[in-house]
Amino acid sequence: MKNRWKTVGLAAIMAGLTLSASYAEAAGVLTIGRREDSTTFDPIKTAQNIDNWVFSNVYDVLVRVDKTGTKLEPGLAESWTTSDDGLTYTFKLRDAKFSDGSPLTAEDAAFSLLRIRDDAASLWGDSYKVIDTAVATDAHTLTIKLENPSAPFLSTLALPNASVISKKGMETLGPDAYAEKPIASGAFTVEEWRRGDRVILKKNPNFWEADRVKLDGVEWVSVPDDNTRMLNVQAGQLDTAIFVPFSRVEEMKKDPNLNVDIDASTREDHLLINHAHGALGKKEVRQALDMAIDKKAIVDAVTFGQGTVANSYIPKGALYHYADNLQRPYDPAKAKEMLAAAGEPNLTLNYLVRAGDEVDEQIAVLLQQQLQKAGITANLQKVDASQEWDMTVAGDYDISVNYWTNDILDPDQKTTFVLGHDSNNNYMTNYKSDAVKDLVAKARLELDPKKREAMYVDIQKMAKDDVNWIDLYYSPYINVSRKNVENFYQNPLGRFFLEDTVKN
């Protein structure tokens, strides 16, 4: 198994080093290097940034988050009103078309919302159960009635997974075909998806803001190895790349041909814990794990001053972040005592690691050393990024470092997904707390901001006490582009505004 992964990694590196220069030199076509390949173009079936960040420019949503990542603005809905009782929302849709030239109507919007609510394959159903009815009153009027008032409702409409898709297209093609080559409602269409290599996007001439789009196309190129991806940009084989390793930032800044962009983010890295695996189901064991990890040492060694220690699943700067949340002290001796008291003195864990991810591999070595001081053996299992995700979803791990960036302004989405429901095993951790789940549901209904904030403070305290996962650090987005690229930008929620990007 070990040799197999070395072979796969070498093949990926060689593929990255032999990228055809013609792609990067193509007029008006922007190449973006990233680690993983996409998994699907069916918005309701994924929760991964590698998908959502592409969705944001293939599909459009009713309501958008602006460039600052702090407020909502019109998308496909040019305006909306809310009834006095907070139960009825009426949206006026602008004149828009899908990429196949067919009109985009309120019926398509209603279909999309009911599908994310009801489809058995939807990862996001719980966040949309509040919708009672969604009806097209006419071609440009969508009326949504809620079961009860919902504070985060408008924010949830900006989720890329709630993008408007073609009702006729989905019903004609079926979900599998649509997920391979969708009918777009956004700035770009999917021209071709070369699995394991790249997603090729082409400018959508039928996009309602087509005049705003400067690029002829975009190619998201999979280059799993971080250092190879950086070399590709330096050599001009890629125009841009995301996930610049912390260790390479200063070096890349000195390259006269490059711009390194450090943008504010809602990223939080954490250690996932599989509560369904034996000893990890014991709260005392998870608390001991938390005390066995020196987060400050990880931040210092790995992020080169770019990161800060995290104390909550709600990132610093986001709505309702609790700055005074508990931070357990680093105390491996105490952790060892706690494990012995819990009947787990010789804990051995399977630690899933993304091969080729420089930061993930560095953290793995540090964590392995730190946990050993508490008598915990962490066996590192390195796999490529795509398989690591599949294994995590399948629950085939004990611990694994992952990250989350907020997709909407309101904390309800992340809170629901990682703490408040069971449909995705609470982000693959199998964490279960009826008390937390109930409070998450109540916070969604509370319209008084002060009362709602108090609820989220309690949720953060309860999650920390239970150790649903272990908060590690917050960090910015760090991307690199060549000097001939302008306006390559991510807002704090991760959306790339490729409608405004220029390649000279």
Structural class: alpha+beta
Shape: globular
> C-alpha Rg, in Å?
23 Å
Q: Note the gap between the termini.
A: 45 Å
Low-confidence stretches: 1-25
- Overall pLDDT metric: 93
Strand percentage, roughly? 15-25%
The profile of the biggest β sheet is:
11 strands, mixed
In DSSP terms, counting alpha (H) and pi (I) runs of 4 or more, how many helices? 19
Helix content: 25-40%
Descriptive overview:
Residues 1-25 have low confidence and may be disordered. The chain is globular and about 65 Å long. It has 504 residues and is α+β, with helices and mostly antiparallel strands. The strands form four sheets. Strands 1, 8, 9, 10, 11, 12, 13, 14, 15, 16 and 17 form an eleven-stranded mixed beta sheet that branches. A four-stranded antiparallel beta sheet has the order 4-5-7-6, covered by helices on one side. It has 19 helices and 19 strands. It has helices spanning 2-17, 21-25, 49-58, 106-118, 125-128, 153-156, 167-173, 175-180, 226-234, 249-253, 283-291, 295-302, 332-341, 358-373, 385-393, 412-420, 425-428, 434-445, 449-466, and strands at 29-34, 63-65, 72-74, 77-82, 88-93, 131-138, 141-146, 188-194, 198-203, 217-222, 240-241, 258-273, 308-309, 348-354, 377-383, 399-404, 469-482, 485-486, 502-503. Helix 18 (434-445) packs antiparallel against helix 19 (449-466).
